[in-house]
Amino acid sequence: MKSTLDHAALAEEFNKDEERVDWHDGALWWIRQKRDRSAHQTPQWEELREAASAIKSNVISNLHDYLIQFEENLKKNGVKVYWASDAEEHNQIVYSILKAKEIKQMVKSKSMLTEECHLNEFLEERGIEVINSDLGEYIQQIDNEPPSHIVLPCIHKRKEEIGELFHEHLGTEKGLSDPTLLTRVARKHLRNVFLTRRAALTGVNFAVAETGEYVVCTNEGNADMGAHLSEVQIASMGLEKIIPERKHLGVFLRLLARSAIGQPITIYSSHYKKPRPGQEMHLILVDKGRSNLLARPDFRESLKCIKCGGCMNTCPVYRKSGGLSYHNTISGPIGAILAPNLDMKQHADLPFASTLCGSCSNVCPVKIPIHDQLYKWRQEIVKQGYSASRKTFSMKAMALTLSSPEIYKTAGKTGRWLLNNAPFAINNKFNPWYKQRDMPDSSQQSFGEWYAKNGSKK
Amino acid sequence: MNIGLFIPCYVNQLYPNAAIATLELLQKFGADVTYPAKQTCCGQPMANSGYEHLTQSCNDLFVENFSKFDYIVAPSASCVLHVKDHLHSHADEAAATEIRGKIYELVEFLTDVLKIEKLDAHFPHKVGIHQSCHGLRGLHLAQMSELIAPDFSKPRHLLNMVSGLELTELDRVDECCGFGGLFCIAEEAVSVKMGKDRITDHTKHGAEYITSPDLSCLMHMEGILQRNKSKVKIIHIAEILNSSSIKA
């Protein structure tokens, strides 16, 4: 599943089927438009974004205190609390909880964090079967492919392809691609999963420090069904999911689904607080690079993210390259600023997979300056030496040329002369510009030359 | 009013007519315009590639060339935004700070400083506006489609003063064209696809010309248009606003 190709190469692959790119781009643009419409129908939308951003600033600044408060309240409510510094620790904790109860099968929902931690693989190696119950995640799991979008995990797949998968794995009739019928098949299959699983794991959208409750937002009700039927309920959450008080929830619930898919609110916003009699509840607080991010002043605002996926839907690069070309669990603009914090070398290409157009920052419900952070990550990546030496060489040559008016004039003249007299030196297959674009006309004198002759007459 | 004309490197080399139109336009409104001959580039190509630390001599040169003017005006939103956001100088930070506050992109200079309400320009064509992202989301030359805020557009305001000109619509009013500086080379496939899609949006609404306050976007789209033998042309907004003096 892991690819050694970078974003540009994977995006080029994706672009070989232009009709598919158009379809993918159109599907996500449609969601961006739905987001626009619902934002327009919400009074004080911009004030809400401002409030959400401010609440999250407060959380980031006082994270330690809120986490301790949250932990105390969880314990008071009878929930077992664990702290995990990385994926390995997190996975071990989940495993030990399941092992203690001799549980061999678990149902999971709404958790990008466990995708990041590769929990499924970890548990499967230890003989525990995990089923993702969110329909999109379920489809991706059947196909043994990571999600391409944090809210719409299989948005890159067409219904016919899903039909084919279901035919292969669930025995549906060949050629069946009607979404309603396919959903019914998946539902029937999952219903049995819910009824037979003793353990359910969910992610967390918002954790309320004041009360020790956590909120999970879904449209399918699958998180609830798993949790309600389980005897062991586990929640995994990143440290940044905290909000101070229950009253703050209203701000985020109004923003989340609207920003994600243009829906006023998710169908289910389920609050979990105490175990039922006879049930165990466990909550794992996971760092996995978050405290490291907190220590980077230029980048810590990315901890505000509420994982709505709005930046992906609006990003033209995402829409035209597909989520899988980001080779990271979290793709798109937000993935491109989160991933380098985890592994700068492996993700050195991602902050460059952007034109810095800034649309992501404008849709972000918590006002993360995503495009500014992309710019800053580029500086950081070069500084740490993760840029190709070829690129560094040409940048140094460019800097030299542009810092000297004389060399610059000569270079400009030479470039234009070449284009006019020896175009083959520039218009060739080694020039990525020329592959699908003509070079600009260079037959005229430069403005500088014109001005030297005519400027004084003006 | 003493104006330093900043003509970005690629405009100087490849689009002299846009630069001449900018100069003439400012002079029409009585400005005293000087083009400092020793200017080169704002340093953005290096900075956006992660090499901001290599731009110091570019910055120093910029400060040297432009600190003496009341205003600095350039026909390129992207370069202006770069200077506004990133111009610093070890030698003279006070001068750099002052420049960051007095540099203007041409459209905003005409609208906000000269407060132009009337233009003697004629351009009898169907024209689509390409909002450069840096002009739009960086310099706020128009309202951004993502925000819930009152609509305005400085380029549209100026183009509405041009006689004979008909503005064409777009399905996606402010989507990026995919130029993105070195992005257009490093991410060639996505860059070209984005450019093609922007062009299609303009052509299907009947545009004969695509105009913008940023030539870098236009240069990229022009490359695609010409490769596909399209009749649609690109033109910098200064050339339209100054069009009465262009011999048709």
Q: What does this 3D model show about the protein?
A:
The complex is a heterodimer of chains A (about 450) and B (about 250). Chain A has about 450 residues and is α/β, with parallel strands linked by helices. Chain A has 3 domains: about 1-40 and about 295-385, Fumarate Reductase Iron-sulfur Protein, Chain B, domain 2 (Orthogonal Bundle), CATH 1.10.1060; about 55-290, Rossmann fold (3-Layer(aba) Sandwich); about 395-455, no CATH class. Chain A has 22 helices and 10 strands. Chain A has helices spanning about 5-15, 20-40, 45-60, 65-75, 85-100, 110-115, 120-125, 135-140, 160-170, 180-195, 220-230, 250-260, 290-295, 310-315, 315-320, 330-340, 360-365, 370-385, 390-405, 405-420, 430-435, 445-455; strands spanning about 80-85, 105-110, 130, 200, 205-210, 215-220, 230-240, 240-245, 270, 280-285. In chain A, the strands form 2 sheets. A 6-stranded parallel beta sheet of chain A has the order 1-10-7-4-2-3, sandwiched between helices. In chain A, strands 8-5-6-9 form a 4-stranded mixed beta sheet. In chain A, helix 3 crosses helix 12 (about 250-260), helix 9 (about 160-170) packs across helix 10 and helix 19 (about 390-405) crosses helix 20 (about 405-420). The termini of chain A are far apart. Chain B has about 250 residues and is an alpha/beta fold. Chain B has 2 domains: about 1-115, no CATH class; about 125-245, Rossmann fold (3-Layer(aba) Sandwich). Helix content of chain B is about 45%, strand content about 10%. Chain B has 13 helices and 8 strands. Chain B has helices at about 10-15, 15-30, 45-50, 55-65, 75-85, 95-100, 105-115, 135-140, 155-160, 185, 190-205, 215-225, 235-240; strands spanning about 1-5, 30-35, 70-75, 105, 125-130, 165, 210, 235. In chain B, strand 7, helix 12 and strand 8 (about 235) form a beta-alpha-beta unit. In chain B, helix 11 crosses helix 12 (about 215-225). Chain B is globular and about 50 Å long. The two termini of chain B are about 30 Å apart. The model of chain B has no long low-confidence stretch (mean pLDDT about 95). The chains are: A alpha/beta (about 450), B alpha/beta (about 250).
